[in-house]
Specification:
6-stranded parallel beta sheet; mainly beta; disordered N terminus; globular; 10-stranded mixed beta sheet
Length: 134
């Protein structure tokens, strides 16, 4: 099974850092390669490559990555240069800025999504709301 994307045929040789399930990191964590988080991170986490947040991971951090796959929990702002995937067990409490987003059934997202540098368009008021304002 691919580590970062279902269609990838890459190997674990591309993974630079693994934050294990029993590891807690506090502060600024910056990497230049692929990162897998299975543990706890508080502060900031940045990579220009791939980031995978495992199903038991908890990040109370602002996060930046090239492509991001989330199966765990993130409490903070998320900036993704490419595609972010929210798997069914994902929980994000914060805003997301990305080029592309994929949200699977069961994922939880409490925040605003901005895609390709443009904020999401607010839906037009319904007829009932227009009449209520008159």
């Amino acid at each position: 099974m691919a580590m970062f994307h279902r269609d990838d045929e890459g190997s674990s040789k591309d993974i630079e850092t693994v934050i294990g399930a029993s590891v807690k990191v506090e502060g600024s964590f910056v990497g230049a390669g692929d990162i897998i988080v299975e543990g706890h991170v508080a502060g900031t986490l940045k990579t220009n490559k791939n980031l995978r947040v495992g199903p038991r991971a908890v990040l109370k951090a602002d996060v930046e990555g090239g492509n991001i796959v989330v199966a765990g929990e993130i409490r903070g702002q998320v900036k993704c240069a490419g595609k972010i995937e929210l798997l069914p067990t994902a929980k994000i409490y914060g805003d997301i800025d990305t080029q592309t987003i994929s949200v699977e059934h069961g994922a939880v997202l409490h925040g605003k999504v901005t895609m390709a540098g443009q904020p999401m368009v607010e839906p037009a008021p319904s007829g009932k709301e227009k009449n209520a304002r008159s």
